[in-house]
Every structure is written in C-alpha cells, then in structure tokens.
Amino acid sequence: MSALDASPPSSMTSTPEMKASSRPRSLDLSAVPSLITPSPPSNTLLITNLLDPAIFHPTSLLQIRTLISNHTPLHSFAPLKSLRRIVCSFYNVSDALTIHRILSDAAIMSSRARVYFGEPTPIEVIDQHLHAPQSQKMFFISPPPSPPFGWEVREEAAPNKEVHAEDLASALGQLRERRKAVNDEMGLGRQTNGGEEGRGSTTMTVYAPDRHGGSPGLPAVVVEDTTGSDDVSPTDWGKILAHTARPPVELMQDS
After folding, report:
1. What is the per-residue pLDDT across 166-211, written as a single tens digit (0 to 9) for each?
2. How far apart are the C-alpha atoms of 55 and 108, rounded to whole Å?
3. pLDDT at 223
4. 3-state SS class at 130
5. What beta strand segments (E) does 99-243 contain?
6. Which alpha helices (DSSP H) does the chain contain, by range?
7. How crowded is the C-beta side of 90, counted as CA atoms within 13 Å?
8. How far is 22 from 127, CA to CA, in rounded Å?
C-alpha cells in the first residue's frame, strides 16, 4: 500500500475571499454622461478650437479662405476672433462634407481644428427692403404719400358759421326746458333784473327759508348771473397801473 493511498483524501474548504470573487460583478454607469447625437450634415461649418491668435491675422485668414475656395466655392466666410472659431457656409451640403473631411483634426498653425455642422444657411435671395404700409395705415405717414388711384379733388365745405351744431343746439334747448320744469316743481324762483326772461342779469333763488320750511332767521341763497350784462365789472373800477420792478442784475465784473 503506497503512501498516497494511506493518506486520507483532503477536502477543499471555501474561504470568504473565494466566495466574494465568485459572485458576478456589475458596472455602475449612472455617472456616465449620455451620448450626444451629432448634428446632421448641413451647408454650414463651424471650425472651432482655433486657440492661436495668429490665425485671425488678415494674412492667415486670407490663406485659409483661399485654401477652402480652391476645393469648393464659398457662400460666406465669417471669422469670430472672440469665440476662437470661423463660420463658413456653402451652396450645397456635399461641398460642406468635402471641407469637413479635409479640415477635421487638421493642424492650423499651432491649433488642432475641430469642425462641426451648424444650422442650415438659406441660400435663396430674400427681399429685405422695407415695403410701403397698407393703404389703411397711410394716414400715419407725415408727409402723406401720393393719393390712391381714382382719387378726385373736391372743394372743401365752408367752415361752420353757427355757434353750435343743430343736434347740440336742440339738446341744449331740451336741457333748459327740463331745468325750468324742475325749478317750477321745487319752487325755485327765477327773475331777471330787466324783466321776465329779458335782457340783463338773471337772479335765481336757490334757497328761501320761508318757502322751504326753514327757520326765518336763516339767510336766503341767491345766485345772480350777469352774463351778457352791460354793467361794468367791479374789477374794472380801479386798475393797478404800477409796474413790477426789475430784479437786480449782477454783472460779471461786479462778481
């Protein structure tokens, strides 16, 4: 019987480290930013990451523009020094794709260019002139424009010779009659110094104690209308002819 047969069979015991290593592992991708969908191809290119200020020197810009124009015709070329980029547009998307392949990761002086597609640039010519306003708003313009087609010159009517228009005069007449009826109902007197409804000043008793049931010791309230009267106003009896003195003047040589 050999020594190997005499030795009892050994049993392998599992340690905690071995149990932990046997478990399946998973990766936490919650902190990974989401993928950014690249912009679809368009006729506009954004050449960015131009960090060398010498790129925006007029001579360098002319060389870059000539290099692009040798491959495809340019529609616009706009260097933006403050943003460290150049925006250029082309007449079609295929030309923009060609320049995108040429300039992507290309070395421009000491900078590595990054090229992206921008918003599409309209190529069609749009009329940007200011159009005349609609005929309904022509009266806002000063001086007014030419008259519309079919307009005929007509003589303007004479100015209104009456003091009030007919409808306004009729309304004022009705108001006088209504006021007179109200005064008669309330017992308010209305007399004129020159006779009943005659010329001269008009006196109206607004409040009379004996008529309105008040105390006899209360004063009466009378309103006198002197409109149209020939009497001289009390303010015209003595006019002040004194002149206002001029304030003292301080000359420059006196200061």
Report:
1. 766 777 777 777 777 766 665 555 555 544 444 445 677 777 777 7
2. 8
3. 72
4. coil
5. 107-108, 111-112, 114-117, 189-192, 202-207, 221-225
6. 3-6, 16-22, 58-71, 93-103, 166-186
7. 24
8. 74
Handedness of CA 58, 64, 65, 67 (dihedral sign): positive
Beta-ladder partners of 115 = 47
Query: Of 157, 160, 179, which is closest to residue 168 (Cα–Cα)?
Result: 160
Helix (H, G, I), strand (E, B) or coil at 61: helix
**Could you tell me which residues are beta bridge partners of residue 77?**
88
Closest-CA residue to 120 (of 75, 150, 56, 82): 75
d(CA 91, CA 75): 6
Q: Give the tens place of pLDDT for each residue, 98-138.
A: 999 999 989 998 899 999 999 999 888 788 888 766 666 55
Query: How far is residue 42 from each of residues 69, 89, 94, 248, measured CA to CA in Å?
Result: 18, 9, 9, 80
Closest among 156, 154, 155, 136 to 145, alpha carbons compared: 136
Residues whose CB falls within 8 Å of the CB of residue 231, separated by 6 or more in sequence, listed in order: 201
The one-letter amino acid at 40: P
Asked whether 129 and 135 are in contact (CB, 8 A), the reply is no
Closest to 118 in 3D by CA, of 44, 36, 40, 38? 44
What's phi and psi for 123, nearest 5 deg?
-100, -25
